[in-house]
Amino acid sequence: MEILNVALTFFKVGIVAFGGGWSVIGLIKQEIVPRWMNAEAFNSLIAIAQSTPGPIALNAATLVGWQRGGFLGALAATTAVIAFPLLAMSLALAFSKYIPLKKNLADESLRSGSMAMVLMTLWTLLPHTTLPMPWIFALASFAITAFTEFNAVWVILGAGALNMLLGALH
Amino acid sequence: MKMPAKAKGIPKTVPPTPWRIFLTLAKINTLTLGGGYVIVPVTGNAFEKQGWIKEEEFYRIFSRAQVFPGPIALSTSFLCSYRIAGVPGAIASVFGVVLPPFLALILVGGFISLYGDTELFKRFLNGAGAVVPGLVGSMLWRTARNRKWSVRTVIEVIVLAVLLAVFPSAAFFILIGGIIVLYLGRLIWKS
Questions:
Q1: Total structural domains within chain B
Q2: Quick check: is B130 in a domain?
Q3: What is the pLDDT of residues B132-163, one digit of tens each?
Q4: 143-172 in B: which are within 8 Å (CB) of A?
């Protein structure tokens, strides 16, 4: 029933996956740490999901599914995470004439919601340690990606390579 | 009168069959790193170049797609493909967006199962994971800078974020309930 559990978890994630991949990462973490992995493994998983092609929430779902239940697990998690969004869009296309949703108001509400989600994501991802290394890596990557147009993927791969080098020096 | 079809800047039209839509999206989603907000403009370009949709129309659909949950690359591609090729197009778009990353991640997952336990690879993953909080921080910084803030939106974000931090296990319900409450609040008091 592991696969069913994975599917259910990512179905829930799909319902509130508003405002770009990063906002939903905190919620995914809430759901799977420490149930299925520790915080450090989760960060690595997100780094992989971000540096592979495709939307990050989708990639995270596929990877977690793969780790929990192999190919079928990956298939279940991926399908589950897009199930609700596809359903919602199909219904909206079919019934758009009858839904009196005010788009501007909905937009602003969702923007606030996803902003709060990103804050939560940031809060749950902050290093829970006084060791300098995780803080230095996090602050340096913030400075690079917030103030330059450097692609985040290179920051991720570079940090991995740098940490490998540091390990080899010791 | 001459046909202007060959004039510069006029896109040549390829019929938007479901198969073509699938191929176009699959190519983009295989080659584009960096998540939805990088993928969407590339998709818009490709659709426009093939003469399927005008740029303004594409971005109009993109802004509507943001009301829906799910990866923004998926919802934008889905709604645009429905617009240009109906239900078969929409179905093709789902496979085009989802299949390439799925296969890529299966490969990566297999690779990690094989080499994940080696010391060197662990160090790589730890280093890569350590930058993630910084990336989230910069995403927050950029969205915050680009938003028009008012007293109302600041309060909305703070209240929701505090609720999420205090009751993390209810995050799912706080978000759904919170967004509905914010929407109704805006309907009632327009400020």
A1: 2
A2: no
A3: 899 889 888 888 888 888 999 999 999 999 99
A4: 143-144, 147, 153, 156-157, 160-161, 164-165, 168-169, 171-172
